[in-house]
Amino acid sequence: xxxxxxxxxxxxxxxxxxxxxxxxxxxxxxxxxxxxxxxxxxxxxxxxxxxxxxxxxxxxxxxxxxxxxxxxxxxxxxxxxxxxxxxxxxxxxxxxxxxxxxxxxxxxxxxxxxxxxxxxxxxxxxxxxxxxxxxxxxxxxxxxxxxxxxxxxxxxxxxxxxxxx
Length: 165
What we know:
4 helices; alpha+beta
């Protein structure tokens, strides 16, 4: 993998995060977003992921952001507050090198440190790399939501995985 460091995301990372994310928005089904984010929206996203629901970035040895991840509220109703949902994105040129595992490991640590009880992952069906990553980090499959999304003219399933902390 080489040297990668994980640190909290900051506003200065907005363009790098946006470039990674928008690449997935426009070319894949790993996110169900269909409209690329603007820079202002990305900055707001970073601001929204301060505190208890953090975002982190992975930097290579040159300081280039090669991936990012975040914890988000799982559902808006108060009883769901002990549960978070993770998101992990890695630049295509750096996939398969352990960046995703470093990001997810840090997100699980942060979730535990913030007192959360459960971390959920909602992964588009067929995304075997993400399913394997989550399994390697202690997540178990708890179900499949059938044909709940539609993108690029295809019906999409969502694999639901969970890790209790």
